[in-house]
Amino acid sequence: MRKTIFRAVLVGWLAGVILAASSSLAETSFTYVGGGTLSWPWTRTTQSCGIGGSSQFTEWLDGPFTFVFHGTSYPLGGQASYIDDFNNDGCPPDGPNPAAGEILNGPTFTITFHPGASGSGTATIMGTP
Questions:
Q1: Do β-strands 55-62 and 80-85 pair in parallel, antiparallel, or remain unpaired?
Q2: Where are the beta strands (DSSP E) in 1-129?
Q3: 3-state SS class at 17
Q4: Best CA proximity match to 91, nearest among 100, 80, 99, 83
Q5: What is the pLDDT of residues 48-93, one digit of tens each?
Q6: Bridge partner list, 20
Q7: pLDDT for 14 beyond 70
Q8: Is this prediction's pTM over 0.85?
Q9: Residue 114 CB: number of other CB atoms within 10 A?
Q10: Which residue from 17, 45, 91, 122 puts its CA 20 to 30 A from 56's CA?
Q11: Strand partners, 46
């Protein structure tokens, strides 16, 4: 009986540790650019890194992207991420990935997306849809 109770407590504790080590959320965001709307799904994951997992960070993973211009939808694909290091100890370093922005190619235009925290982002467009 004691072994059964101990195992149940141990399994419950391990489940709590594993769940605390990684959590996630999924949403959709958008921004206006060049007279159209760029939208993307994103997920937020909290993870651990460093010696013994002592540092926590959040990663927002954005994409794939879709651009809608005057009722025409352009699936652009692509993926970008933004990392926020809670402890500011560089594990991993803060900032967007790729640092210069994700290049999204349409048939007659190029959109550069710059990811931000909380699934946000800004975009610039070159060319005309």
A1: antiparallel
A2: 23-33, 36-49, 55-62, 65-69, 72-77, 80-85, 95-97, 102-105, 109-115, 121-127
A3: helix
A4: 83
A5: 888 888 888 899 999 999 999 999 999 999 999 999 887 778 888 8
A6: none
A7: no
A8: no
A9: 18
A10: 122
A11: 23, 58
